[in-house]
Design brief:
19% strand, 8 strands, SH3 type barrels, homodimer, DNA-binding, binds manganese (II) ion, Arc Repressor Mutant, subunit A
DNA sequence: ACAATCCTTTTGATTAATCAAAAGTTTAAT
DNA sequence: ATTAAACTTTTGATTAATCAAAAGGATTGT
């Protein structure tokens, strides 16, 4: 049995490097998990010992196939739990991330399977993130950040890549929900801002924030 | 934040001594939690330090009011989760105890409250155990063990005081479900057995097993 | 080539939880 | 009153996870 801590490290390595192409820096991992770099180094060594990651000291770390498989299952549990909390228990999409962060480590495969049935085998979580299948494959979509859109583009919102509660509340308050159609009304690289029309209202966003909203052409 | 370990100790102390009248022996607690007596002693000292239990060395341990309140909340979470797993997710009553044993430590009050709403504010869990209110009060029923029944008694099953998976499966297979009406067809103190009619079929139980089935007169 | 800087790793300590086995207490039996 | 049995507590060690701070690599600018 993997500890919650180990599962969190594996999951974070996957999220920071989903394709397993790059190497994740120790400091980057440490920051994502809110631990000191020394703690991360120490855990990386443990995981390498267990064959779950490959570590090139001073260069970085990467999941092995075995580690990746385990990580993807944690992600599956996280996302199914999130969708369950929203769709079945009626919680707000801005609240469920922290709950799922804990639940992902204790819900059994059987519970996940029952939730999956009840939800009708969903492909995406409340934030638009793909839900891996039980076999570990991920649906792929080609999305682009809202910040890349050009003036006049009409797109629909497909993913919010920021789990922060207040960001999600802000998005909700301004009609920036999954599937919502929006139009780019202004874009000013110098002012670092983009203006969109959502539900007939103008909403102004910094480009950094807009970069965390992913869209597809409708 | 209390650790899962601390919550398990508090909960077990409550279950072993719900009325807070007797003292729980260190060894009894240790056995219930599957730890060595030394581990229990050590944790008891920690809990006493935190004001959650009162410890009389070599005599026993008892929850304080504060400890009891925390324990009852763990019990509430456990039982709501169990009922949720059965009624909403469709799991078997024989499987949910172990799941709930983990989930009770991570589900938030908000999740519990949503489950409670969805379940219609139930008063008892799938095994007939009372669900404490959010304020910590417990519904009381006066039940008696099936082993105390006399020949000819007709009673209905109100609680199964044994969470063991195979016991619960056996009970289910023999129609010994909550609310089922049964009749005592034979009782032999010497042979240590009792025979009941359940769904027209005879079922023979040892008196120890029958002692874990609690009934009320219909 | 040589610092300065920025990371990463190592070292040494700490905390929570546990166990095995030794030591101590209580109780019950002779 | 002793002794034995049963239980509890203490002691000493271990494991997982963490941190602060020291030490060690790598990179970049001069
Ligand atoms: Mn987590
Ligand atoms: Mn999500
Ligand atoms: Mn538990
Ligand atoms: Mn129960």
């Amino acid at each position: 049995m993997l500890s919650s801590t180990v599962e969190n490290y594996l999951k974070e390595l996957f999220l920071l490097n989903p394709d397993g192409e790059t190497q994740v820096a120790t400091g980057e991992l440490a920051k994502a998990l809110s631990v000191t770099p020394g703690s991360a180094t120490s855990m990386i060594k443990t995981l390498a010992q267990a064959g779950l990651v490959e570590h090139r000291p001073h260069y970085g770390v990467k999941l092995t196939n075995e580690g990746r498989t385990l990580a993807v299952h944690v992600v599956r549990r996280h996302r199914i739990v999130e969708l369950f909390l929203v769709n079945i228990l009626g919680m707000d999409w801005s609240e469920v991330h922290d709950e799922a962060e804990q639940l992902e480590h204790v819900v059994s495969d059987q519970v996940i399977s029952k939730m999956d049935d009840l939800l009708g085998h969903p492909t995406h979580d409340p934030h638009g993130d793909p839900i891996p299948t039980p076999e570990g494959t991920l649906p792929v979509r080609s999305l682009q950040p809202l910040s890349f859109c050009k003036l006049g583009d009409t797109v629909s919102i497909a993913r919010i890549g920021n789990q922060n509660t207040s960001f999600l509340k802000f998005a909700e308050d301004n009609g920036l929900l999954l599937g919502a159609t929006i139009k780019v009304a202004n874009k000013n690289e110098v002012a670092d801002s983009i203006t969109i029309i959502s539900k007939g209202e103008e909403v102004v966003l910094g480009l950094a924030a807009a970069g965390r909203i992913e869209v597809e052409f409708a």
